[in-house]
Request: fold
Amino acid sequence: MLNILSTSLGGLDLLASAVLILDIQGRIAYANAAAETMLESSFKVLHKQRLQDLFVNGDKLATIFGQAMLRQFDEKREDLVLERIGRSPLHLNMVLSVIDDPDNPVLIELRENVQQVKLDREERILDQTQANKELIRNLAHEIKNPLGGIRGAAQLLELELPGQGLKDLREYTQVIIKESDRLQTLVDRLLAPHRRPQIVGDVNIHEVFERVRSLILAEFPNGLKIVRDYDLSLPEFRGDKEQLIQAVLNIAHNAAQALAPRMVNGDAELTLRTRIARSITIAKVRYRLALDLHIVDNGPGIPAELKDRIFYPLVSGREGGSGLGLTLAQTFIQQHSGVIECESRPGLTDFRILIALP
Ligand SMILES: Nc1ncnc2c1ncn2[C@@H]1O[C@H](COP(=O)(O)OP(=O)(O)OP(=O)(O)O)[C@@H](O)[C@H]1O
Ligand SMILES: [Mg+2]
Reply:
């Protein structure tokens, strides 16, 4: 009979998958390094704890463990979502094998189910944007209405001011007028996606990208290289060209702004990539084909503290930024049965736009 713990298990520490060995009570007899990382505890702490007790919904594990002890199977594969107190749930692919060791009969291999984590995140983004949209719209209307009155009243007041000697007072009315205008612009941007109905026509995505390219180059003529990596076989599709240009421009504009320090060195690079993607899920619906567009920059990356919130309105990491560019872009793309995702680390920020094709 085997005594697995007396064999050398050190090599398992090299694995990326988490490996655990359980005794007949379901207590942890061994955990490799990846398991320690995944469970955020050292083996010292984990040792002799029942695996099922580590999770709020550990009863699922207990059931499978029970079946294993009854030898109902030799190996079982299962996708699990294990909930933990005060931490995010673990989405896992589990393979549980019964091994030939009477004292420690169960070997478990756990891998993070990245696909599921991603789907959950997308769903969250979707719910949030929906809620945001309503909030923004109502708030913008509430601000817009009195704003016209405030500006008008300041203008009238200014007209009533006698010419000389009251320059100071005129400065005050000018402040009111200027600040009202600033707010007006903000409110107009907030309401932009709702202001006009979509104008749908045949769109060639490369025309959209080329337009964005020339707009960006016009604004950043020095030190920025724009690489075009197009799949010219992409089909035309139905969409609102102006909205799509605005969406791509907002993303590319952020990238160019983030690249400003590199432009000085002359190695700032923005890549525009177009591809086709197959079998894609967007907002819980599966599509056979989708446009797979990337706007990639080699800038400093999105600041960690903003990463989860960049699509929220009024979230900005930029001096003077209004934090609306990405909110608008996401809204426009969603109106095209699409979604924007983002991956970012220093030196590589990749905004991916997926748009479902019929
Ligand atoms: N490519 C990028 N590289 C680094 N940071 C980025 C990038 N894209 C977006 N960000 C960060 O995300 C924030 C939000 O972007 P968003 O376009 O929504 O607002 P903004 O650019 O601040 O203001 P606005 O676009 O309304 O003028 C930015 O302020 C910036 O900190
Ligand atoms: Mg922006």
